[in-house]
Amino acid sequence: MENYMETLAKRAKAASVKAARIGGTQRDRGLRAAAEELLLQKKHILEENEKDMKTAREKGIKQSLLDRLQLNEKRIEDMAEGLRQVSALESPVGEVLSMKNRPNGLRIGEKRVPIGVVGIIYESRPNVTADAFGLCFKTGNAVILRGGSDAIHSNQAIVSAIKAGLRKEKLLQDLILLVEDTSREVVQDMMKMHGLIDVLIPRGGASLIANVVENSTVPVIETGTGNCHIYVDESADRKMAADIIENAKTQRMGVCNACESLVIHAHALDMLPGIVERLKMHGVEVRGDERACLVSESIIPASEQDWGTEYLDAIISVKVVDSIDEAIAHINLYNTGHSEAIVTQDYNHALKFQDEIDAAAVYVNASTRFTDGFEFGFGAEIGISTQKLHARGPMGLKALTTTKYIIFGDGQIRS
């Protein structure tokens, strides 16, 4: 007898086959209709989100994670705008990447096609629900969404609005399916749907991602945690460095592209007290090594564990180094392959940092907070991949496609 997850996966598989018959114009109309419904049902979505927020507050969830869960009018408008932007983008599906003539007369080409059924396992980020649908729908994929139990009411309301938009355009509603059973057993079942789900994308904390990577029989695109660093070089512009650090750490603290670690050259330590004071204004606790602690009484001693921690909270670590080589070595040892930045006026140091840092996104003189599909012009993102196969960095439309070879002949047989 089929279990709940198998039934859902089979529905998605059937829908993904039918999705190939939906033209690009129809898909774009469906995306715009879904965006409109999100706005029309804004009041209901906010009411359902408040149910999740109330439960989360009662559980004592920390403020930075409450911020990830909370919706407001602006965030719903951003979700709708994301769908509209995705509808306006050119779809990569159907693109012929190459076409070569072989000596035997065969013409062999490579064509971009949908993956099929995409499964997303994510934590308390309701905006992922709309973003994932938009990108998967645009690329002809069906999507199965398993959000966190903390956001179940929000996700149900968002999916209901999206389905209403699809109904208006007479489009297949099974192209978006929400896993409404919030038990952990269902997650385990989802990870075993090899042959029905084509790829799983986990988005969330380290334990969630590790669980999916280690236990899934379905291929996984690993999205990573973000122990993101900013390295302040000895030549850094003082005001620029302070502005970037304040933004990267405090603009939103519970997101994966927030700065968790500050690495600073010993010759730039004169600016550290001022940076600490700016961070303190946002309630940020600063943990530093021995040399950092000598510079400011507000810095408390860091432990070895601090260098590798993604806090998602009002905490930052500070490491003092004597060279750019030491900075790069420290960052590559402790980073999670997400986003790293250097603040410098030295052109050669900027290029060296970008060449030698092992991460999906490497910045020169800019905040790590820009690692985001919306900011990169993708309309939205399915996640930020920290692996090196298939996709890396913010994953937009192309990351949700694969390729097939198309071969044209005129009767050739192999001897």
Automatic annotation (TrEMBL):
Species of origin: Faecalicatena acetigenes
InterPro entries per record: Ald_DH/histidinol_DH, Ald_DH_C, Ald_DH_N, Aldehyde_DH_dom, G-glutamylP_reductase_CS, Glu-5-SA_DH, GPR_dom
Protein name as it appears in the record: Gamma-glutamyl phosphate reductase
Pathway assigned to this chain's UniProt record: Amino-acid biosynthesis; L-proline biosynthesis; L-glutamate 5-semialdehyde from L-glutamate: step 2/2
Biological role stated in the UniProt entry: Catalyzes the NADPH-dependent reduction of L-glutamate 5-phosphate into L-glutamate 5-semialdehyde and phosphate. The product spontaneously undergoes cyclization to form 1-pyrroline-5-carboxylate.
HAMAP family: ProA (MF_00412)
Name of the top EC class for this enzyme: oxidoreductase
CDD domains in alphabetical order: ALDH_F18-19_ProA-GPR
Keywords: Amino-acid biosynthesis, Cytoplasm, NADP, Oxidoreductase, Proline biosynthesis
EC number: 1.2.1.41
GO molecular function: glutamate-5-semialdehyde dehydrogenase activity
NCBIfam families recorded: PRK00197.1, proA
SUPFAM superfamilies: ALDH-like
Ranges for domain Aldehyde dehydrogenase: 7-271, 313-377
